[in-house]
# Entry
Amino acid sequence: MKIDARYVLKEPDYGNAPLPDDLDLDLRIGGSRLLGEIYLPSGIYDAPHPCVIVCHGVPGTNCNDDLCQNLRRMGCAVIRPYHRGAWGSGGFYSFSHCIEDAEAVARWTRENAAGLYALDRERIFLVGHSNGGNTVLNAFAALPFIRAAIAFAPFDHKAAAGMLTEQQFRELMKEFGSVIRTAGPDALYEDSVRNRDSWSFAALAPKLKDRNLLVIGSLRDNTAPPAQMIEPFWQKLEALPTQAVHKKIMLDSNHSMDTVRLKLSEIIGRFIEEMI
# Structure
């Protein structure tokens, strides 16, 4: 079998097939070392394997290892990069670097990893949480070979600037940067201000209208409230004619979706299966 979303939340019968495996990701991007993990599925699944690249939000919140394991169990290979400046990766963390990292990892996956690990070059997916949602939506627009993108609790920098005063926004960026290596105390704020217009989800809508997309919001999310960060984008996206698959789902939880983690994995797994 290729993949089977029935096994997102339960173990299949592995029999005597080769077991799943975990490998280190170690790439050079922008002159810095980017680390991460590669999760390979069991031999019960037929190669080449669809591949999901999972981009984390600002470090110190949620690494989504549960999601990676669940998607691997259903037959996907999963690549989880640690963005530059985070969790042992070299260089400086910035929102711009996150987008560059995602694009570079996706191209490496298609050009190199597909042959190394029996991955399907035509079925590569991007998944991102929080600022990872900003990462994957912007990277997705620049990568026509990506099969679909999935953003959950996505953080829209343009919308955030409209919700907060400059001082509140500066403090939020400093709080975000408390556990990562940045170029300076104001580096994240300056990066956000410099790029928020081009990163705006609403501005991305025309570029993404013909692309397969799943967006998941959380009704009690105070960091990336869907009314401000998803709905304006979605209204603009749905006003544009397309034959692509666009899905929006709302769950009743917080920003990290702590109370719906199983449901989150199931929704994402089923969507990927649909796209396969």
